[in-house]
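Q&A log
Question type: sequence-to-structure
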Amino acid sequence: MGTTLRKTPLHAEHVARKGKLVEFGGWEMPLQYGEGILAEHEAVRERAGLFDVSHMGRFEISGPGRLEFSNHLITNNVVKLDPGRLLYTPICNESGGVLDDVTVYRRDESVLFVVNASNRARIWEWIERQAQAWDGEDVRFVDRSDEWAQVALQGPKAQTMIASGTDSDLEGVGYYHFAETQVFGVSTLISRNGYTGEDGFELYFPAADAVRLWNAILDAGQAEGISPAGLGCRDTLRLEMAYCLYGNELSPEISPLEAGLGWTVKLKRKEPFIAQDILKQEKSEGSKRKLIGFQMEGRRIARTGYPILVGDETVGEVTSGCFSPSLQVGIGLGLVRGDVAEVGSEVSVDVRGKTQTATVVERPFYKDGSHR
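Response status: OK
Response body:
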């Protein structure tokens, strides 16, 4: 008997717009709509696209110990944030592997964790486990995932498309800042961040208002060419920016330092966090593996799991790859032995038994995004 896939509050809208629905992390989600992945990719790069990301988990931590407890869970530092700001961070296990990469919002009276859909149960259990051993001030945590919906409006025209729907000054909401306001009459937490390399927002609001707000945004952006967008272009857009995808570039067996996320690991923090000593040791000794970005010669596409070679020696494997719609070249990310990761060096990829030359390049691949 097959597993029943979960559906977001916007599922009927995806069906009505003839979205191609696929399984993703236990959810039935739109891969693309009628015009296809390339058209949606172009819409986000040039105008704006609207993504349903309600499948992600949303956990709220409150109580007098909320900041210190949240900081214990993550490698970054939420204590240093003022209310109204957010950050990106890994959550690591005791051995330094990544359990999830999350965004963390510092609200006035709580901290909001936004986690990947596939890791929702794992991270909730991890929070419960850590809370049982916590000897600091009291904390409370609530799973808001089913109460709230979430969409991402991404693209250089995102702000102008919804400016008429709110009295708040969206221009004053800086990169990795957020406001709690009304958007088209719906109580919304709106933050300026995203996963595409373009300007834009992520919006959190009551699930009961999801259809109303989704359609209001699409109606408001229609004149400027907004497009509903699915998982297909979300992946090509993030890969052009060399953003990590959990399950590909990140896993419990990959450390944030190996994945190139050292900037999110605050090793000098006075407040200890899980795996701090392990990661300090890795930093001191040097990571044995490193994440690289590479550009293929020719039009062959490197797929996840393909071997990466130097000469006849396998030195790693592809973690993500695609043909870049914006750059019109094959690009990819790979985890390789640390001594072969230098930018400009030549490697090859075993593409179904045939080797294809590739060059290690600087990340991101796409450098013209509108993100601030």
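Response note: Helices lie at 11-16, 37-46, 66-73, 120-133, 158-162, 210-221, 231-240, 276-285.
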